[in-house]
Amino acid sequence: MKEKKGITLIALVITIIVLLILAGVSISAIQGEDGIISSAQESVDKNKNEGIKEQIKLELNDKKIEKKEALTDEEIKEIIESFDKDGEIKDNTYIETEDGQKVDITDLYEVVLGVEIKPGLNRDENDTKKYYVYTAEGFYNLNQMMLNNSLGYNVSIEIMNNIDYSDYTWSTAMSHTELGFSLKEINGNGHTVSNMTINGSAMFSMLSGNGDVSIKNIIFDGAIVNSGGTNVAILTSQIYQNTLLENVTIKNSEITGAYKVAPFIGSVWDENNSKSTIATLKDCTVENCAVKATGFDFGTAGMIASVFSVTSNDIVVFEGNNLVKNVNLYAPNNGYTIHANIYTTDADTDDLVNEAENVTVENVTFENI
């Protein structure tokens, strides 16, 4: 009898499994986040963007030829806005077409807000308490206005570009109120201030505006503070009134002081026994930093060096997702206690890392100097 040959059940099952795996891989390659369809759509969108930008450039050029001279900023803006579905440039950076296509126009036209009062520094035409910083020189000029008492009360500052401050030094003012001005807001608009050297204890000796004060949407990269004093930080030495720090990152920086040393805030005081929140940190990051307390006591690897309240530690609140990562803390081996907490108070223990709610801590080290 001739032996019959065929596919066994096991071989059939294995074949089906292999085919299912291959089908899954193929579907993922086609429909996944980085798949063929997604990549093709990105290419289509990019081509549309470039096509719209070319149309804008052609119209700008035609208008220039017709006028026989350079176009004014207002004329350029008017032409660009004619391509937007609402007839306006959005967030000073892009337009949106009728079909929902967003087109970045920053390489065609930079929206300059306010009137220039010093190189790189503009003041709002309708609000004399609002300033726009465009360059490192403008940031320096802002600092000089703070020092010579000509900035005004309750001012707001908008950072409009990335700023490399390596050619300048920031000098710390005394007290805002003593100098005749107070800060209301700094909005970095997602920009980076790099290579800032601070001559003194902090950018601001004290945040004490009338009402809420905020610093938000800004990155400090490569900042250096070297002070022999107390209450030493990059942002502010002391806080007395309600202050919000939101989406602020300090990285690759070095902060040195005698004691009460921290990346964000030197100390928070509830001097009026208010029993309310004085400082709120939301979605803030400290990364790749060195914090050095050369004198005694109160150095911190986290964000705030010391909190003084006769009522409650709830005067400091962390919200969202805050991160302290890769921070080296140094202190002298002189018998004094060094606190390495996210924030410290008079009553804190000597724990190397005391995690606060809504704060992630990774790789914080401590050594003597």
Protein architecture, described:
- This protein is an alpha/beta fold.
- The chain has two domains: 39-104; 115-368, Pectate Lyase C-like, CATH 2.160.20.
- The chain has five helices and 25 strands.
- It has helices at 9-31, 36-67, 73-81, 136-147, 176-179; strands at 94-96, 102-104, 115-118, 121-123, 130-133, 155-159, 163-164, 169-171, 183-194, 197-199, 204-207, 213-221, 224-226, 230-232, 236-239, 243-251, 254-257, 259-261, 265-269, 279-282, 285-293, 304-308, 316-319, 322-331, 359-368.
- It has a 17-stranded mixed β-sheet that branches. Strands 11-15-19-22 form a four-stranded parallel β-sheet, with no helix packed on it.
- A hairpin with a 5-residue loop joins strand 1 and strand 2.
- The longest helix has 32 residues, at 36-67.
- Mean pLDDT is 78; it is low at 335-340 and 343-354.
* Major sheet attributes: 17 strands, mixed
Poorly predicted residue ranges: 335-340, 343-354
Structural class: alpha/beta
Specify the overall morphology.
flat
Using DSSP, what is the number of strands? 25
Number of helices: 5
Looking at the structure, the CATH topology of the largest domain is Pectate Lyase C-like
Please trace the helix and strand order, writing H or E for each element. Answer: HHHEEEEEHEEEHEEEEEEEEEEEEEEEEE
What level of helicity do the residues show? 10-25%
Distance between the termini: 92 Å
Beta-strand content estimate: 25-35%
Mean pLDDT score: 78
How many discrete structural domains? 2
